[in-house]
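As a warm-up, study this chain.
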Amino acid sequence: GIAGLFAFPALFIYTLILKKLKMLFFSRTFYLSVLGVLFFSAGYYLLREYYDPGYIKSIAAGEWGGRYLNTLDRNGAETTFYIKNLCLKYDFPEINLFLNERIYQLWLILLPVCITFIFLSKDKLMRELTLLSIIFITVHLLIISFAQTKLYWYDAPIFPFVALILAMGFVQIYQRIIVYFKLKEKVLRHFIFGILVFGIVFVPYKQVI
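Now compare it with the structure written out below.
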């Protein structure tokens, strides 16, 4: 579906920041990849239209602008809908049991801390992956926030990227603790590691139980 293209703007911005746009456009692999995606995507739609006439018309009305430009099935909400849902409990009484348990406040508090530790590190790969994750999260939230149709699962693609940033940040925090306190004994390192892991999983596990 069209949602598969949501990452393209983020990837384009990321490529611009790294100043690799020229290299990309002169890469044969890039054009082969584009042709490959077009072949399989267009092939799917054409085959589906052949076996299920009217499919493309239905998709055009539902996904290619229809869902974005119009409110379908009364699923409209304010622009800040997804931002509020990240910070607060979901306000859907009919499915209260599931959604009201999905609270991200704790992780959002830790997110800037982890980002700071990552960008202070010397690990170039982690810094670049964090930059890409931040761009993707921002772009994806902007795209879905301005859509007229809003559903609570549209923000799901950002969670793996948030988790990546948090995980890399925790790695940097752990390494700095080891270096700062000059912990050379494996027992102490394992103890610190255990405390850190317990601190990370305690709240979500308690919530699940």
